[in-house]
Design brief:
alpha+beta; ph1033 like fold
Length: about 170
């Protein structure tokens, strides 16, 4: 049986993801300044499982400003460190502290992402909805609220083209 790290033929091909962040909490401009960050504060089990088990080194990330005007893809990043326990769950002074999380059996996980580029302009939901290639994109489905979600390769390429960004990694 193939592990999460490899496919049956060897190395798993790069996958793509969309990470949501409210720009007041953490923006693409902050990531550009920091160059790298750990993606903390995810407190949904489905998203946690993706961070822990599926998102791997080298995967691409669409950086999406949620709860903003406009809500939009504003940049891209790449995964620079695979899943590990979210340190905020153990810090009682942190907003994301989880008193029931056990360091011996952590509940919440993070990945590190590195800045790659900003889009030339925000790629809004309305712009994405106008693209037939994106009609099945998880983000655009009714009731889609996950803060971490998969993106298909053709969706990734369509959005990069829309944003005037060349994949450089």
């Amino acid at each position: 049986m193939a592990s999460k790290k490899t496919s049956a033929k060897g190395k798993r091909p790069r996958r793509y993801w969309l990470f949501k962040s409210e720009p007041e909490s953490y923006s693409i401009d902050q990531l550009k300044q920091d160059k790298r960050t750990f993606w903390s504060g995810v407190r949904n089990y489905q998203a946690r499982n993706l961070l822990r088990d599926e998102i791997l080194l080298g995967d691409g990330v669409l950086f999406y400003h949620s709860n903003a005007k406009p809500m939009a893809v504003v940049g891209i990043a790449k995964v620079v460190k695979e899943g590990y326990p979210d340190p905020t769950q153990f810090d009682s002074s942190d907003h994301y502290y989880d008193e029931s999380s056990d360091p011996a059996d952590p509940r919440w996980f993070v990945v590190d992402i590195g800045y790659v580029a900003k889009t030339q302009e925000p790629i809004t939901r309305d712009m994405m909805k106008d693209q037939s290639e994106l009609s099945d994109m998880v983000l655009l489905q009714r009731g889609s609220r996950l803060s971490v979600q998969p993106v298909e390769k053709h969706e990734w390429r369509t959005i990069l083209k829309m944003g005037g960004v060349k994949e450089t990694f």
